[in-house]
Specification:
The protein is α/β, with parallel strands linked by helices. It has 15 helices and 12 strands. Its EC number is 2.4.1.182.
């Protein structure tokens, strides 16, 4: 079986790596990066943050779109992960070229936050929809299926009790713009903790780069880790900029505060177009079934050192851990083996 895969985000690529373990003998083509091989492009080629950055890369994206459309015609199955702005038009183009081509969408777009009108299109152009958030499935009127969350497969290290001792982890993001805005604030926080072990988590694909260009001379005040799972497991608290890392820390069992600063234009667009009360995935999950948030979010002008330090000092680790366990129970299981089973089975035959 040949599968065209498209994992534009680093987090999607991690989930694809886990899925691959359950797909022996399958040939992958497309956009991905594994330890032993990679596709025609990798998530690094699409590392942009915000609407302005996307506009700057439009010519490249159009070129990739055409290549992926041609590759789809040679594949038995098309598997698209997240990144709806690229993947929905791609699925439409594939179906126009070959209506019988089997297209699977894994990690559904956040239509519950914005662009709910996309639901009808998604239901029409994708043959199978597999979600990783339980609350989003009902939006698709029986077309989508919840198959678990990939982080429950990937995070082997998970705490069984509240951890009172350990390091303080700092995760200022994986994109240069994020780091430039958030890391200086985290440095202020670190300097106010002279007696704590401070660990800076570096994205794995930064390993071969000159870190001083990204973090500056203040990097010397931190121990460095390229393994976020291990770093969070050994920590008693974390400062996390956003993204999948908030749910990662939740599943591991390490309390944290979300701290984020966006560009002014991105902030304006988000405030006017996206209708959600929280930006952290862990909080979005928590409020979907518990009606209360899991952690504090300090965003834009509230993302400042004094407030971050206050959040650290006032965190109730026991309360956090109790809520975190409820979120894990809500997610039920991992998704990788379940998805592999459905990919290898005849189209739709395993859907309940």
């Amino acid at each position: 079986m040949k599968i065209l895969v498209s994992a534009l985000e680093a987090s999607s690529n991690l989930h694809l790596n886990e899925l691959r373990k359950h797909l022996d003998g399958v040939e992958f083509v497309g956009i991905y990066e594994f330890e032993d091989t990679q596709g025609i492009y990798t998530p690094k080629d699409f590392s942009v943050m915000g609407f302005v950055d996307v506009v700057k890369k439009l010519f490249f994206i159009r070129s990739v779109f055409k290549e992926m459309l041609e590759l789809a015609m040679q594949a038995d199955v098309v598997l698209l992960l997240d990144s709806s702005s690229f993947h929905i038009p791609l699925a439409k183009a594939i179906k126009k070229r070959n209506p019988s081509k089997r297209i699977i969408y894994y990690i559904l777009p956040q239509v519950w936050a914005w662009k709910p009108w996309r639901i009808a299109t998604i239901k029409r152009v994708f043959d199978e929809l597999y979600g990783i958030l339980p609350f989003e499935i009902g939006l698709y009127g029986g077309k989508a299926e919840y198959i678990g969350h990939p982080l429950l497969d990937e995070l082997v290290l998970q705490k069984t009790a509240v951890q009172k001792e350990g390091s303080i982890v700092f995760m200022p993001g994986s994109r240069q713009g994020e780091i430039a805005r958030i890391f200086p604030i985290m440095c202020e926080v670190a300097k106010a903790m002279p007696n704590e072990k401070k660990v800076l988590v570096i994205p794995p694909f930064f390993d071969s780069k000159d870190l001083d260009d990204f973090y500056g001379e203040n990097i010397k005040h931190f121990e460095l880790s390229f393994d976020s799972n291990k770093a969070l497991y050994e920590a008693k608290f974390a400062f996390i900029c956003s993204g999948t890392a908030t749910l990662q820390s939740t599943i591991i069992g390490t309390p944290f505060v979300l701290c984020y600063k966006a560009k002014k234009i991105d902030e304006w667009i988000v405030r006017h177009l996206i209708k959600i009360d929280y930006i952290g995935l862990a909080n979005i999950l928590a409020t979907s079934f518990m009606d209360e948030a899991l952690h504090l979010e300090l965003i834009q002008q509230d993302c400042e050192a004094p407030k971050l330090l206050q959040a650290y000092r006032e965190m109730d680790a026991k309360e956090f851990f109790t809520k975190a366990q409820k979120i894990k129970q809500y997610l039920k299981s991992g998704s990788s083996a379940n998805l592999a089973q459905r990919i290898l089975a005849p189209q739709g035959s395993l859907k309940e």
